[in-house]
Amino acid sequence: MTDTPARTPSDRPVNTPVRATGVRQVRPKTEGWQQAKDETGRPLLQFASPKRGKPPVHLADLTPEQRVEKAKELGLPGFRAKQLAKHYFQHWTSDPADMTDLPAAGREELVAGMLPNLLTEVRRLQTDNGDTIKFLWRLHDGALVESVLMRYPGRITLCVSSQAGCGMNCPFCATGQAGLTRNMSSAEIIEQIVRANRAIANGELGKREHADERVTNIVFMGMGEPLANYARVMHAVRTMVDKKDGLGMSARGITVSTVGLAPAIRKLADEDIPVTFALSLHAPDDELRDELIPVNSRWKVDEVLDAARGYFEKTGRRVSIEYALIRDMNDHPWRADLLAEKLNARGRGWVHVNPIPLNPTPGSVWDASERSVQREFVRRLNDAGVPTTIRDTRGKEIDGACGQLVATEEDQAAATAAV
Who's near 267: CB < 8 A, 6+ residues apart? Predict the structure, then answer.
């Protein structure tokens, strides 16, 4: 592992970016919706989940020991819980008809008690070549969430939601426009994976490469801020990586993303689960990031980068920096230089930058950077010794790319009609 000692806060350079470059500076603003603000006029941040009816307790919400106790409460031997878990996590089914190793008498009651229905598919959109599917799910209380399933050569990735809506109120993200509806349960998160695996097994994701295909990679980049729903997300992650009583996935194939909740990043570093950590930074300077990512008013760029560096030091896992390149807003050459300076001040070999061209919206302030600007931004970072690769995004044509997940009026109508 290549690395150099990180500087202490006292010996890091103080950066005063030079802005007199003659390059246009566009300020972030909301378009077509009113951003919620607090009494001081600042963008409203929602960390606490609004109180709503809780989803039914599901096998995936419980530890293996709790599953045994739940089966006994239902009047059945504890080992039946392990049989149910095998059907659910290995065969991706909640259908009693598939569980012929369970006694016919009481089978449906057992399944209903431990595998209650959590997600109802309202609609799905699929790309022409069939390698990307966006699912719209209705939760038990009518809340709507989306997940996106993507086939790549040699891997299958699922972008999962962790909250219905989002409370981080970022002006460029469609998900945040309606605010936070509620946190999702651990089982609601896991169920997205199980349903995706069932779709793959049924041959619904384009041409299959082999018979045993399943989701190999998870990215917490759907609806919601994962670290604002910390306990449930971490229980879901533990279930994903549990090889004996869960999905048996590789922790290295799971990416947990955040807009910068520094205390939760430090907590994640102590979990001893080597997931990939991704920080959605989008600006290296507090002046712009305060407007672009409202949570920056709580935890500034340097504190968040220190927490990200701490994650690397604790886990040895290289951190990803997500950076949406937005024309004339955050794509200036001096910002690439400042980003490289801040990252290198904390050592070498600990980070990788993934610039993401924003989904084009002609005439809007939210538009993709010009290709030449993208190349220059990447060149400056690479020349400064910061590994940087433009990230491919999928699902633009079905509104399934980064920042596009939102329950539209059309979705709401479809959900109502499906009830």
Answer: 230
